[in-house]
Amino acid sequence: MTTSTIVLLILAISVAFGLAFYQYLYKAGNRSKIHLFLAFLRFLTLLAIFILLINPVISRKTYQDVKTPLPVIVDNSQSIQELKQGDLAKSLSEKIAENSALKGKYDVQRYTFDADFSAGKQLDFKGKQTHIDLVAQNLKQFYRNQNYPVVVLTDGNQTIGNDYVYSFQQNTTVFPLVLGDTTTFLDLKINQLNVNKYAFLKNKFPVEVFLQYSGTKNVNAVFSIQQGNGTVYKQNVTFGPSKKAQVVSVLLTADKVGVQTYKAVITSAENEKNKYNNTKNFAVEVIDQRSEIALVSSLNHPDLGALKRAIESNQQRKVTIVNPNEINSLNDYNVLVLYQPDTDFKKLLELNKNLQLNTWTITGLQTDFNLLNQSQSAVQFRMGSQKEDFSADFNPQFNAFALDNIGFEQMPPLQNPFGTITLTGNANVLLQSRIRNIVSGNPLLVFTENGAKRNAYLFGENIWKWRVESHLKTKSFEQFDIFIDKTIQFLASNALKKSLVVQHESFYNSGETIEITAQYFNKNYEFDENARLTIQLKNKKTNAVKNYDFLKGNGEYKVNLDGLEAGQYGFVVKENQSKTSYSGNFEVLDFEIEKQFVNPDVARLTQLAANTNGKTYYPNQVDALIKALSENPNYVPVQKAVITQSPLIDWKGLLIILIVSLAVEWFVRKYNGLL
């Protein structure tokens, strides 16, 4: 309480006493006991009012003992049950958490973890993933700036997350209690399998498999890759005490479009404790993205060879150089590259009016611009007879597709007749033209879209010089070839904008997060935040149907389908107001990572304990762990002073005194006829 408050309280007592004395005793001729009693009541009333107005703050200091936190954290993943340690984990955690010596010294708090970290969750050992690194992340948030021990009951086999060995803070001492049989069993295991999710039809795709062996004798085994009832690859492998691992690299052929499911298997004549980890399913989605490109020209020019090599650097492209007079049908082609169209192109352009193939028109000194003006309306030409050199300026605002600037400004100039080029349609300019240091105002490379129709225009010949220049600078044709490939990719894909766009994988591993995202756009192709999206999911084998609602996120809608059994699923996403829908399929592969282990990872748990100045214990040493924690002199309760400040206006007793004194004063005066 401050000095000014004390002065005000003394003043309040004096004023209250003076007013009570003046009102009841100063002029009273007979100072009876009633007058004295009434003066006392008036004094209490006035003093209570003055105290409420002053509202002094009363401080009170108390002391309490703060115990060191002791998190006891249990691995709730499926691997604990697979190692037959579930009941033991429950009894050990109960014994540690309920020990009276530990409870007297520590603030014991119990947690569980699998893919998530939680408090108070019942142990069921059904977690599909083990995320030990998440334990460290949460403890950092819970116990900032505190030194404390941690007991972790786990097998140490982490399946997701960063390396937990280096995740815990320096102020944390970790005591791992190892769950699982540390006896080494003979075990062959497919430890890891790397494969791309996508492959192109008729191409070979790589599969990299890491095989691991635990044991003390030489073992002969057979590694194979199966698809359906057939075997597509087989190889003999040997292991021994000095040869614990092998890497097998395989090239498989993508010969069928769609999701192709395979099974990698390692077998031997030995008796293994765990054969679940001898098999691993994987899948590859085979895409037919081949494009037949007709490079049409009535001229012989170095540009033709440069374009053909650049386009065919992508094995999914095949280029045929053809004279316009030799083409009778366009059904065999996906994209037309029209190189310097002249009068010989009339028949070809007429054929394409009906088929509407996407085209890349390249003009030059031999181009018939009147023919181009008549055959299309996206670009109009008013060209003279004078030739000019046009350099390129990259447009960073170009957004038709992603493309880096490969140094277009330093490329040799292209030649084209001087004139005016006017864009009349929906055009996106990639390169602007420049005559030496003067901006011409004309585009050099432009892309147009009209519904599903896409076209590109390059206004200048001698692009072969760009390919040579790119090689001189980078010692590779790669940058230029990627630039040409993205141009062809833009033309080879003519998908219309959709109001409902759904993103999903073609396959998932069981136990993984199965998340499908969607975006719904209004008629102006703006993201609609008020859409109502639902998904109907059907198991193709059992015909079981489930319905889910999408939840709105940041610029997209999401639905989580975790917990699905292995199998093939079809689904329909629907926007309920517009009835717009999207259908798709995916497959959940039978792969449970928590069933892969036969032993705990003692080495990593021991390293974790050493890094944090802790110690590794085993189930038969739990009493030693309890004794070490209870006798550890580094963790003692700390006495903490707690100062509480409460304003007197919050004290209900003062209000009661005020009410009682007023009521009693009125009653006494009324009873004695003093009112």
Please provide a written account of the structure.
By secondary structure, the chain is of the alpha/beta class. It is 25% helix and 37% strand. The chain is built from 14 helices and 33 strands. Strands 16-15-17-18-23-22-21-19-20 form a 9-stranded mixed beta sheet, covered by helices on one side. A 5-stranded mixed beta sheet has the order 4-3-2-5-6. Helix 1 runs antiparallel to helix 2, helix 2 packs antiparallel against helix 14 and helix 10 crosses helix 11. The chain is flat, with a radius of gyration of 41 Å.
Descriptive key words:
675 residues; nine-stranded mixed sheet; alpha/beta; flat; five-stranded mixed sheet
Strand order of the largest sheet: 16-15-17-18-23-22-21-19-20
Distance between the ends = 40 Å
Helix content: 25-40%
Strand % is 35-45%
DSSP strand tally = 33
Largest sheet: 9 strands, mixed
Q: In angstroms, what is the radius of gyration?
A: 41 Å
Mean pLDDT, as a whole number? 87
Low-confidence stretches: none
Number of helices: 14
Choose one word for the global shape: flat
Structural class: alpha/beta
Task: Please provide a brief summary of the model.
25% of the residues lie in helices and 37% in strands.
How is the secondary structure organized here?
Layout: H1 3-26, H2 33-54, E1 57-66, E2 68-75, H3 78-82, H4 86-97, H5 100-105, E3 106-113, E4 117-119, H6 132-142, E5 148-154, E6 172-178, E7 187-195, E8 198-200, E9 204-214, E10 219-227, E11 230-239, E12 245-253, E13 258-268, E14 279-287, E15 291-296, H7 302-311, E16 317-322, E17 335-339, H8 346-355, E18 358-363, H9 369-375, E19 379-394, E20 414-423, E21 427-435, E22 438-450, E23 453-459, H10 464-474, H11 478-492, E24 500-503, E25 507-509, E26 515-520, E27 533-539, E28 545-549, E29 551-552, E30 557-560, E31 567-575, E32 581-589, H12 602-611, H13 622-630, E33 638-647, H14 652-671
Parallel strand pairs: 2-3, 2-5, 5-6, 8-14, 15-16, 15-17, 17-18, 18-23, 25-32
Antiparallel strand pairs: 1-33, 3-4, 7-9, 9-12, 10-11, 10-13, 13-14, 19-20, 19-21, 21-22, 22-23, 24-26, 26-30, 27-28, 27-31, 29-30, 31-32
